Amino acid sequence: QFTTYVRNVHRASMRGLEASADWRPIDAWRIGAHLGRVDAQYDDDVLDPLRGTRLDGHRLPLVPRYNASIDAEVRSGAWYVRVEGVAAGGYVINAYEGTTGVLHEAAIPGYRIANLSGGWSGTHASLMLYAYNVADRRYFSSATFGFAGVALYPGAVGAIGQRRTIGANLRWDY
Fold first, then answer.
1. Model-level pTM?
2. What is the percentage of the chain residues whose pLDDT exceeds 70?
3. Are 73 and 80 spatial neighbours (Cβ–Cβ below 8 Å)?
């Protein structure tokens, strides 16, 4: 009765553009950037032929409109520091309730997070200190619909993105 709409479709299309850049103003510095933009939609899909419900022109679920990152790294001998910003645009989720013929669609917002890391690398040992999602932003990394009738939670539910994580890695290679 309540199912998330996931199946093969007759026709869907995806158009996009992706670009990356890497720049070293001096040997010790590196600045990188990435940007991707995508438009994905159902072109020809009859969801429920008996009711005439179609998905033509609707966005494909779980496909963000864009993704982007920018990072900067500075090295001095065995030491380094790296700063990174990562972003993803919003996406839609949808589900079809077969008993009532209702198509549910929800927009899941995008996110922006910042990561920091730094450390030292020697001949056999390395140490890295890191902080991911520094501002502790809450965001969905994937989502779907929950229904009160079967799962006791209505609306969008899903996997929450990584919370603020602070740590250290010590590595020994021989």
1. 0.79
2. 89
3. yes
